[in-house]
TrEMBL record:
Coiled coil: none annotated. This is Regulator. One of its GO terms (molecular function) is DNA binding. The keyword Repressor does not apply. It comes from Streptomyces resistomycificus. Keywords: DNA-binding, Phosphoprotein, Transcription, Transcription regulation. Residues 12-128 form the Response regulatory domain. Pfam families: GerE, Response_reg. The keyword Transcription applies. GO terms for biological process: phosphorelay signal transduction system; regulation of DNA-templated transcription. SUPFAM superfamilies: C-terminal effector domain of the bipartite response regulators, CheY-like. It comes from the Bacteria. The modification 4-aspartylphosphate is found at D63. Residues 154-219 form the HTH luxR-type domain.
Length: 223
């Protein structure tokens, strides 16, 4: 009798999305595969970071727009704290800027929710093997855009605001006070106010309402 082939290592997945129904659907897709198992679920980016540090996880699948901490912010934090952890962004945003930001944040793949049933399993396996994954159909546009930038002498798109300003923008848009934001980020309320003033100036907006509108357009919070 021929020896049995070695069993493939099961990929332990952390799934983070603030919509329970989305998590349930994604979990069904993943757990239909013998080599994928969801071992933890998070409803926001901050919880995802906490769970990833506490659990034995191989892959974090993160939505972009989540409360408290976005998927991109969580990816940056996880890349710093757990460099061996692989990260995949699962999002509704078919957006070039988000794709580049995801790569800069440490993600190895970018999958659209609209085609998750087709691409997600392949993306999970690829990212764990350190093979970057981007959803089919986007490669040409991204490569063409990148080459156009090089021909114009431009670099990759620059961030309009810093990572800290992005964190504060998101929390302001969610309705938190400067005192609450300071406590969450371990900085003073005065420092929060200074960042907030910088945001108003940089983005050319006047008040929290306009900051919130910007945060929605940027995908930091859901409308």
């Amino acid at each position: 009798m021929a020896p049995r082939p070695p069993l493939r290592k099961t990929i332990r997945v952390l799934l983070a999305d603030d919509h329970t129904l989305v998590r349930r659907g994604v979990r069904l897709i993943l757990e239909n595969e013998p080599d994928l198992t969801v071992v933890a679920e998070a409803g926001d980016g901050a919880e995802a970071v906490e769970l990833a540090r506490a659990r034995d996880v191989d892959l974090a699948v993160l939505d972009i727009a989540m409360p408290r901490m976005t998927g991109l912010q969580a990816a940056r934090e996880l890349s710093r704290r757990l460099p061996e952890l692989r990260i995949l962004i699962l999002t509704m945003y078919d957006n070039e800027q988000y794709f580049f930001e995801a790569l800069k944040a440490g993600a190895g793949g970018y999958v659209l929710k609209s085609v998750a049933d087709r691409d997600l399993v392949e993306a999970c396996r690829a990212v764990v093997l350190d093979e970057p994954f981007i959803y089919p159909g986007a490669e040409r546009a991204l490569v063409r855009s990148y080459l156009d930038r090089l021909h114009r002498g431009d670099g990759l798109p620059e961030r309009a605001i810093t990572e800290r300003e992005e964190e504060i923008l998101k929390l302001v848009a969610e309705g938190h006070t400067s005192k609450e934001i300071g406590e969450m980020l371990f900085i003073s309320a005065k420092t929060v106010e200074r960042h907030r003033a910088n945001l108003l100036q940089k983005l050319g907006v006047r008040d929290r309402l306009e900051l919130t509108r910007y945060a929605i357009r940027a995908g930091l919070i859901d409308p």
